[in-house]
Design a protein that fits this description.
Blueprint: E1 12-18, H1 19-28, H2 35-43, E2 47-58, H3 68-76, E3 80-90, E4 96-99, H4 103-113, E5 119-123, H5 130-138, E6 142-147, H6 158-163, E7 166-169, H7 170-177
Parallel strand pairs: 1-2, 1-5, 2-3, 5-6, 6-7
Antiparallel strand pairs: 3-4
């Protein structure tokens, strides 16, 4: 499905961006995202009430983290950044592992905002979000999922695509939101 602008210009929408998932999806497609262009693309199609960006940050590397400049930039440029420290542990082999996700936070925000929305745009292909999509739809909100099936394996879970009211392949948004010469006015947010 190509992104054909099917939003009603008067529709109230919110963007829910699973930061790590969207970053990995764009990388798998071979491009970096320009978040300013991405936000402008959706602001040109409907009334964007909120643009949430969810990410975890490794606590001991917070100041040096490669994501810190992006998080700061997003925070000052129209996005509501929701972050938390990732949890570290040592596995049975003695290797340091970092884990963490923002699924619960995204789900809570989606349910809290649902009564004010006409449409939710979820930037994630993670099948764990299928129950959230279903719950938001029961409140009368249409849901568009943005991910990709153009990679092998697909980054978008089949159950999530089936549950969504519409699916937009990120590859179809590439010309509108990829980092490139026309976006030199923006810092290069890589994630």
């Amino acid at each position: 499905m190509t992104f054909d602008g099917t939003f009603n210009p008067a529709a109230k929408i919110a963007l829910f961006i699973d930061g790590e998932n969207l970053h990995l999806t764009a990388k798998a497609l071979g491009f970096d995202l320009d978040y300013r262009k991405l936000l402008e693309e959706f602001q040109g199609r409907a009334t964007v009430l909120r643009a949430f960006y969810y990410t975890t940050i490794v606590a001991d590397q917070e100041q040096q983290s490669s994501i810190r400049p992006l998080v700061d930039w997003l925070d000052y440029n129209g996005f509501t950044v929701i972050s938390k420290s990732a949890k570290e542990h040592v596995d049975t082999s003695g290797r340091r592992k970092v884990r963490g996700n923002m699924h619960v936070e995204l789900a809570v925000d989606a349910m809290a905002l649902a009564k004010q929305l006409d449409e939710m745009v979820l930037f994630s292909g993670n099948g764990d979000f299928q129950p959230v999509v279903e719950a938001v739809q029961r409140r009368g909100v249409r849901v568009t999922v943005v991910s990709t099936i153009a990679t092998s394996p697909a980054m978008a879970a089949d159950e999530l695509r089936r549950q969504a009211d519409s699916f937009v392949d990120l590859v179809d948004l590439r010309s509108k939101c990829a980092w490139g010469p026309s976006s030199l006015r923006t810092p290069n947010p890589q994630r």
